[in-house]
Design a protein that fits this description.
globular; about 290 residues; mainly alpha; about 5% strand; two-stranded antiparallel ribbon; 11 helices
Amino acid sequence: MLTILFDGIAYGMLLFVLACGLAVTLGLMNFVNLAHGSFAMAGGYITVVVVNRLGVPFFAALPIAFVVTALIGAVFERTLYVHVYSKSHLEQVLFTIGLVFMSVAAVDFVMGSQQVFVQVPSILQGQIDLFGIGIGRYRLLIIIICGLLTVALQLILTRTRFGSRLRAAVDDPRVARGLGINVNSVFASTFAVGSGLAGLGGALGAEILGLDPIFPLKYMIYFLIVVTVGGTSSITGPFLASLLLGVADVAGKYYFPKLGAFVIYTIMIIVLIWRPQGLFARSQAR
């Protein structure tokens, strides 16, 4: 049971890193980016190429995946996304889902349709036994990295001038511009960082989840569940929701393998019926 709990926490941490960029763009920028999984897939394939083919050490490939994916996100934000910020959510959904299918077709053409995994160093393979608990070394690394990223992201959004400017730019862009805030630069930086975090999540998840061209479609619903269940008013909500859903998904598939992902969808439905605004979101005054 404790081993399942540990694996569930590691999986939940990975889900959060994959989905936190979407939590930022949807919750803070009010933009529905269903192509978020495509950036995660890009980070995963970048890691596979530089590690498996170019021989770059795995730990050096992680920041490479973050930086390259963030640059890709910045280019896409300035050339494509900036034109649909003011559109309705339906138009944003149609636009970004189109980008998803384009990325799927492009990756299938360039990389092939077979599933690939990243080669992790031997020090991260296997597991260690701690008080009778089987702890996978790679999953322990995921927990450490994701935990540090969560703390850093929360501090940046709540304790720094950039976080204040971002909230001001979202609440009232016109007033923010009047106060001297470069709204376009703030949005571009936020989108680039969110894309980079997705790429880092894809790099870390390549060994556990595997990579194939339909990766964005397979895990799109998981990203949306994390943001929906956790709420979009903060980063803490999606983080706690990721842990809850990660443990529930791993335990459900272990104890009830025939039900598959039925457990996680059941939790989502119950939460949305009980608290439509999200489990950890603040209730709005009527």
